[in-house]
Amino acid sequence: MRDDPRLPSSPGFWRSPLRGPRFTSVLGLVLLVGITVLFVTGLVSYAAYNPDLSPVNDKTPDKGILGFYLFAWPTNPHWLYRLNQGVHVTLGITLIPVLLAKLWSVIPRLFALPPARSLAHALERISLLLLVGGALFEFVTGVLNVQLDYVFPGSFYPLHFYGAWVFFAAFVAHALLKMPTALRNLRHLREERNDLVTPRPAAPTVSRRGALWFVGGGSLLLFATTVGQNFDGLLRRTALLAPHGGGDPGSGPNGFQINKTAAYAGIDTAETGEEAWRLVVTGPAGTVRLSRDQLAGFVLHSSALPIACVEGWSTSDQWWRGVRLRDLAALVGYDADDPPDVFVESLQRRGAFRSAALRANQVADPRSLLALYVNGEELSPDHGYPARIIVPAAPGVLNTKWVARMTFGDL
Amino acid sequence: MRRPRIPVGSPFQLLLLACSFALAAYAGVRLLAGDWLGVALWFVGAALLHDLVLLPLYAALDRAVVRGFGARREWVSYVRVPAALSGLLLLVWFPLISGMVERRYRSGTGLPADVFLARWLLITAVLFGGSALLLAVRLLRVRRAAKRRPSAVH
């Protein structure tokens, strides 16, 4: 029965002459490098939220030792998060054809009989379920999340973070077990014959080299229609299918990309008007309530900083103008040169980051502002009018918009 | 006489896999802490859906195209490549192209949500059109080469 070529358990069922250890090895080594970069940039992105600073920054508080590597997120270089997240999302999308081709190349082994030749082999096959399920789970949740399609069972952060660790555990074992074979397959000029090579090859319609070009072409097409969402102007127009590609939502100084609009966040214009809105700043010296006019009367500073989203899109540097965070800390009793952490609360009704914490090093940076203006104009409602936070190298969601309250003090 | 036993396999492999499972379990209990059934279904379902539905589906489609071309197998790629690239874009950007996230996308980002289907269709047109052009050039070259060497054919 094993050799009945009508059954997928028979090696003769699989007839593509492309399959073989070399083809699989090339794809495997590309994924080895690519997925390692995805894992590292993913962990770095988690650190960028400063999750150990305050519970509001941490969507995976029961992480245990999985947060062993966390560090105080720096503010230099100011494009650090933009680069990290652009690489994470763009590379992930680019690797999809490679992942699909890799899975195609080893599909005969899913059905191979006997199911296990030894205890070690049986465990390896169970591990492959974690590997394949984990890879697809990570790619699918990531691809859905950047398109705002929140159909997965739970919040994106814990699913993608813990899913990544389950996947990576299986990935490391797989890489260690298979890498020697993969490297040997690529070094030798003549291919070893193994179970991936069909005993009944069909007439070829494309060479192996052609098939690899085909996979690479798919990656190139996805890359070319995605990467532009990290740049402004003409380049953004090239990202034809990416969520923040194509063009900007508006024109003029406030025309750049928006993560969540004022309407979406539930901002009521009655609360942001000159009469109604007051910024409440609290510290050891007491509480200060400031109108927008009073804030505009402070010494204002400028900084050129991007908006960079966890979803893998970003803007180029925008020219922000406002009050330095460390000057606000000084207003409520701290030394401007040695400010503490700050807890920021927004007027917004919806969103996982209605409040956010910034660390002392972020408050101390002279480029960190409570911005009132952008590119020479008042902030628009969608960009956080009356006032918003802007901090170098911080993930977009920590640059709180529609700020209502700031509480300085060690968290 | 000893009875035949289940072979254990490489001890290195066993240790490595045990270590991998322990780490996966540590993260796994946290992954499953919420809607455990939903997450397990997504995790296993993703693998099953890929291996038992998506892959057989595109393999069968490809086989049908190859069979459709009959003796002219060398032309298969002119259909296969643009179709696969277009399908790949649809697979990755399906939520945007299908318009299923239209309301959330438009109200969240302030960007028009109804442009993705048109863009995907235009990219698909360019892919197939470009492929047709390449095929036409190739056929023209073959014909010219055949005309130039009439004596070669007897």
From TrEMBL, chain A:
Domain Oxidoreductase molybdopterin-binding: 274-408
CDD domains noted in UniProt: SO_family_Moco
GO molecular function (one): oxidoreductase activity
Transmembrane segments: 26-49, 87-107, 128-147, 159-177, 210-228
Keyword Transmembrane helix: yes
Keywords, alphabetical: Membrane, Transmembrane, Transmembrane helix
Keyword Transmembrane helix attached: yes
Source species: Streptomyces coeruleorubidus
Protein name: Oxidoreductase molybdopterin-binding domain-containing protein
Upper taxonomic lineage: Bacteria, Bacillati, Actinomycetota, Actinomycetes, Kitasatosporales
Pfam annotation, one family: Oxidored_molyb
